[in-house]
């Protein structure tokens, strides 16, 4: 088996605002099982698709997609901080291959990443530096957003390249499903936040980082009490999306309209494009079959929380 697909929601709220113990245990069990499957697969390389939340990518220059040859996690919300182990040459070759395939991707020799990248590496592999990781950013919050089709084509191009390497590749999609946590938006931001979104947020003072973290925690507590304080989770949309990913009929998503997704499932639901890209990369290795699936709306995490594993065959 040359590739294994693991899609997993992330949440910065874990450990800050948690659901009831039995739900926490259920999720921990899902992660443990995913981790065991990965250990058995014994990957030599990881392809990780993740969004960012205005911690590494800003409106001074916002690419739709970016591949890193070096990446450092900032350690927000208590996630791990430090360098990822990135195979620089492979990342650069992968970027060239993607460009040759007709998908224009940015390249970063100094990528700054947040919990979107760090959390799956910690949960699934036990740390940031356990295995070589090609980090791929997909803009999922800063309009204008890339389309579902472009995310699929990005994933397909990367999968084609990795399939040629003759390595065991773990492909991870980090984020989703329906959710709309409080993330500032440029048109409605005050002057200070606007400046942060334009790039000064790259190096946030500790006090402001703390305030920002607390703001999200407060919002989660309010959301638990009243799910109309933010856009409500949409389990029906999530189940539909999971079914499409599991079926492998990814081109079905090409027609999905970004505005409809924001309206129906929440503005951060675009993070599921990491799943689309990851599944498309997996499909480039050959037909895949779903191995495991989990879904539960978890208001404490402001998330339709899900996981999906697929293997070749
Ligand atoms: O306060 C901010 O600017 C950012 C808040 C933030 O990072 C929230 C992130 C939420 C998720 O990553 C998620 O639910 O997927
Ligand atoms: Fe996120």
UniProtKB/TrEMBL annotation:
Q: Which UniProt keywords apply?
A: Aromatic hydrocarbons catabolism, Dioxygenase, Iron, Oxidoreductase
Q: Would you identify the family this protein belongs to, as annotated?
A: Belongs to the LigB/MhpB extradiol dioxygenase family.
As its record notes, the protein acts as a catalyst of: (2E)-3-(2,3-dihydroxyphenyl)prop-2-enoate + O2 = (2Z,4E,7E)-2-hydroxy-6-oxonona-2,4,7-trienedioate + H(+); 3-(2,3-dihydroxyphenyl)propanoate + O2 = (2Z,4E)-2-hydroxy-6-oxonona-2,4-dienedioate + H(+)
From the broadest rank down, the organism's phylogenetic lineage runs: Bacteria, Pseudomonadati, Pseudomonadota, Gammaproteobacteria, Pseudomonadales
Residues of the Extradiol ring-cleavage dioxygenase class III enzyme subunit B domain: 6-304
- Top class in the EC scheme: oxidoreductase
Q: Which Pfam families match?
A: LigB (PF02900)
Protein name in UniProt: 2,3-dihydroxyphenylpropionate/2,3-dihydroxicinnamic acid 1,2-dioxygenase
The keyword Chaperone appears for this protein: no
Cofactor entry: Fe(2+)
Q: How does it assemble?
A: Homotetramer.
Catalytic site? 115 (proton donor), 179 (proton acceptor)
Instruction: List the EC numbers from the record.
Output: 1.13.11.16
Q: What does this chain do?
A: Catalyzes the non-heme iron(II)-dependent oxidative cleavage of 2,3-dihydroxyphenylpropionic acid and 2,3-dihydroxicinnamic acid into 2-hydroxy-6-ketononadienedioate and 2-hydroxy-6-ketononatrienedioate, respectively.
Which HAMAP family does this chain map to?
MhpB
């Amino acid at each position: 088996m040359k590739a294994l697909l693991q899609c997993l929601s992330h949440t910065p709220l874990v450990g800050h605002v948690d659901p009831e113990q039995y739900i926490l245990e259920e999720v921990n069990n899902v992660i443990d099982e995913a981790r065991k499957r990965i250990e058995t697969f014994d990957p030599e390389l990881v392809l990780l698709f993740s969004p960012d939340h205005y911690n590494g990518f800003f409106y001074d220059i916002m690419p739709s997609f970016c591949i890193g040859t070096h990446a450092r996690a900032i350690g927000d919300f208590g996630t791990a901080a430090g360098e990822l182990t990135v195979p620089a040459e492979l990342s650069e070759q992968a970027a060239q291959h993607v460009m040759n395939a007709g998908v224009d991707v940015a390249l970063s020799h100094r990528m700054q990443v947040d919990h979107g990248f760090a959390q799956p590496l910690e949960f699934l592999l036990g740390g940031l530096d356990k295995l070589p990781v090609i980090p791929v950013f997909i803009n999922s919050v800063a309009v204008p957003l890339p389309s579902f089709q472009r995310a699929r084509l990005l994933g397909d191009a990367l999968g084609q390249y990795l399939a040629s390497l003759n390595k065991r590749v773990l492909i991870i999609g980090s984020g989703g499903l329906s959710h709309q946590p409080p993330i500032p938006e440029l048109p409605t931001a005050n002057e200070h936040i606007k400046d942060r979104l334009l790039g000064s947020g790259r190096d946030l003072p500790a006090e402001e980082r703390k305030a920002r973290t607390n703001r999200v925690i407060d919002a989660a507590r309010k959301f638990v009490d009243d799910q109309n304080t933010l856009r409500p989770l949409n389990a029906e949309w999530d189940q539909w999306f999971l079914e499409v990913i599991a079926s492998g009929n990814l081109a079905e998503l090409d027609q999905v309209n970004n505005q409809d997704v924001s309206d129906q499932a929440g503005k951060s639901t675009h993070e599921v494009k990491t799943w689309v890209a990851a599944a498309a990369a997996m499909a480039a290795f050959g037909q895949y079959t779903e191995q495991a699936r989990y879904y539960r709306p978890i208001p404490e995490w402001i998330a339709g929380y899900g996981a999906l594993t697929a293997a070749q065959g």
